[in-house]
Write the structure tokens for this entry.
Amino acid sequence: MSFEEITQKTYCPFAKPSKLGPGITIPTDDVENELARHRDLISDFFRTAEERSLDGMIITFEEPTLGTTLDALVDLTRRFYTTLTRMFPSVYIPDDPQPDERWYAMIEGELFFLVSFAPCYPETSPRYSHGDQRTYFLLQPVSTFERNAKFIDRQRTGIQRAFAAVGKPYDVRLATMENDMFKAVMPIAPLDRHIPWWAPGGSAAEEQQDRIPHTGL
């Protein structure tokens, strides 16, 4: 199984034709040092993503233990963003983030957000990796959504229904929150609780205490 095969199995029509930039492979659990070696490639991707109409960059973590449990994925996400803060001054992690505050990480002037696929997700999750033991981080520049805004708006309800119809529902309020920190790690159950990966220590089960507030969506 590869990430390309995972995207071909998705029920999101936007994901299948996506144009991806060069990928990065992290072969060990030494995430910090391995990631730092690819600083120039990451920088180049975000500097040229809008001009080249790129929809994302894949980072593949080959060490199975980094994503076998939700707790491990939470820890990997925290390590990933913390490493980015050391590599790029434009990336920061707020001390007390709020769900209604707009936040995206930014590299080379391009805002982006993170979508993860990991072996910890069951078959009922939209982030299911179909038996692949690797963990994939898809970094999506905001410019791709600005470029495809009309298509995404037309398809949004249909995408949600398609996932729900095959037993892979997701909470639309979480998906459309202003603060991307709150949706970087998708919960398994219940679906309306965010996972504050930025908080050091604790397990995902303990951290999933805050329900996403109802806003009438």
Notes: Strands lie at 24-26, 57-61, 105-107, 110-117, 135-141. The mean pLDDT is 81. DSSP finds eight helices and five strands in the chain. The two ends are 36 Å apart (CA to CA).
